[in-house]
């Protein structure tokens, strides 16, 4: 059994609870021990950066220090959390002045950070630590014949100097995972583009157009489902899909899964266990197709 400190982020604990449930289901099936860290705070990604750089360092330094006390690395399920924690970790490891300043703050609450923690998104933790060969041994429902459009989003790939999981121009980790599950990964241009979530409060039309055009391209290439490793991308692609359709003046109706849900289904998870009733676009047609492959 491999252990990680589990950092679900905010969305997976509230509006995207199905992501948290699916992650825990997958962890149990793959013998992953998720160590809870309930005292961890929001990473503040996309909001706190321009407001107070010290606060960004301190709150995320605190999370890193809490994880370090356990002796295990952090497992994330959100691209933005992954990027924010990775950015802070890089800064603290490579800048002694910032590390000392952060530790001065942490000392007030009985913590210290030495820089020994790694941040791993579940996609790449499964690839690098669990291994696709071990994953294949656990499959209960092959995804054979299911055309799956992977949507990486931004923060799991860029900036490549901070998140170093994959080739920023032509990543393959997601496609390799889909292949390991028996599915057919769909190649399309917008799979590595921005979903638009970070701009939705500033310019809704621009934001939802980005998501809409990604969905449209996958839909036109006959995808059965789009899958994303980020709950913020999922909000753009599923929750706002009706708005996105209006923004680009096209008909859109493509089911969207969280990455752990896709893995969970392949490992035998049911419609209810994956929380698919919480999605705006129905997953029933996809599940019906997958059930035909049950071993």
What is the molecular shape? Answer: globular
CATH architecture of the largest domain: 3-Layer(aba) Sandwich
Task: Quote the CATH topology of the largest domain.
Answer: Rossmann fold
Helix tally equals 12
Query: How would you classify the helix and strand content by structural class?
Result: alpha/beta
Biggest beta-sheet profile: 4 strands, parallel
What percentage of residues falls in helices of 4 or more residues? 40-55%
Strand order of the largest sheet: 2-1-3-4
Q: Per DSSP, what share of the residues sits in E-state strands of 2 or more residues?
A: 5-15%
Q: How many extended strands?
A: 8
Summarize the structure.
It is built from twelve helices and eight strands. It is an alpha/beta fold.
Structure characteristics:
295 residues, alpha/beta, Glutathione S-transferase Yfyf (Class Pi), Chain A, domain 2, Rossmann fold, 2 domains, 4-stranded parallel β-sheet, 12 helices
């Amino acid at each position: 059994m491999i252990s990680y400190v589990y950092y679900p982020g905010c969305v997976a604990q509230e509006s995207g609870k199905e992501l948290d449930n699916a992650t825990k289901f997958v962890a149990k099936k793959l013998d992953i021990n998720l160590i809870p860290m309930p005292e961890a705070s929001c990473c503040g990604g996309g909001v706190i950066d321009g407001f107070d750089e010290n606060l960004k360092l301190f709150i995320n330094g605190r999370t890193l220090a809490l994880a370090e006390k356990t002796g295990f690395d952090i497992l994330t399920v959100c691209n933005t959390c992954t990027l924010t924690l990775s950015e802070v970790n890089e800064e603290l490891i490579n800048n002694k002045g910032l590390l000392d300043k952060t530790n001065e703050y942490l000392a007030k609450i009985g913590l210290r950070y030495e820089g020994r923690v790694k941040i791993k998104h579940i996609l790449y933790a499964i690839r690098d630590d669990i291994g696709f060969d071990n994953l294949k041994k656990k499959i209960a429902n092959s995804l054979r014949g299911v055309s799956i459009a992977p949507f990486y989003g931004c923060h799991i790939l860029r900036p490549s100097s901070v998140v170093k999981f994959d080739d920023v121009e032509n990543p393959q980790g997601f496609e390799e995972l889909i292949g390991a599950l028996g599915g057919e990964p769909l190649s399309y241009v917008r799979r590595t583009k921005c979903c638009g979530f970070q701009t939705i409060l500033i310019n809704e039309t621009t934001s939802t157009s980005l998501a809409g055009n990604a969905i449209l391209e996958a839909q036109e290439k006959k995808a059965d489902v789009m899958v994303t490793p980020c709950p913020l991308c999922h909000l753009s692609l599923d929750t706002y899909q009706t708005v996105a359709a209006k923004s680009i003046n096209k008909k859109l109706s493509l089911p969207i899964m969280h990455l752990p849900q896709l893995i969970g289904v392949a490992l035998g998870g049911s419609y209810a266990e994956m929380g698919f009733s919480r999605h705006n676009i129905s997953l029933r047609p996809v599940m019906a197709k997958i059930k035909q492959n049950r071993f």
